[in-house]
Design goal:
Distance between the termini: 37 Å
Radius of gyration: 19 Å
Order of helices and strands: EEEEEEHEEEE
Shape: elongated
Strand order of the largest sheet: 8-7-1-2-3-6-10-9
Length: 133
């Protein structure tokens, strides 16, 4: 089994029996500027700071490939609702200056078994960088 990264204790992994990996990763950042109006002249802009980075990605989960979509989504939900900031590592790189907070998630159920249990899903996650003082 190859662990290719993790979000807190949620491991992204690939093997011949397991597929729990990420896709469609987007990482963005932005800066803040203030605009100061001047009488009869051009406005001045002033750099005032940097917003926390944001990241989003999807996790592909399938019970046929060794993961429980509902159980894994519950872990994400618990991080989100507790406000716990967690590290994000993909490959050998730790992303961000410290940790990440889960702002939101959305589970898209793709298939069910005969009893109505979710057997495969894609979970979209939106993160915001959490900087410690």
């Amino acid at each position: 089994m190859a662990v290719i990264g993790c979000l807190g204790d949620i491991a992204f992994e690939v093997s011949d029996k397991t597929l729990k990996t990420i896709t469609n990763m987007k990482w963005s950042g932005s800066a803040q500027y203030a605009t100061h109006q001047r009488h009869a002249g051009n406005a001045l802009t002033e750099f005032v700071g940097i917003d926390p980075d944001k990241m989003s990605f999807e996790i592909i989960l399938s019970s046929y490939l060794g993961s429980d979509p509902v159980k894994e989504t519950a872990k994400i939900f618990a991080y989100e609702r507790s406000g716990k900031a967690v590290p994000l590592v993909i490959g050998s790189k730790a992303y961000g200056k410290y940790r990440w907070s889960i702002l939101s998630h959305e589970m898209h159920a793709l298939s069910y078994d005969g009893q109505g249990n979710v057997t495969s899903a894609t979970v979209s996650i939106n993160l915001q960088e959490y900087i410690r003082l």
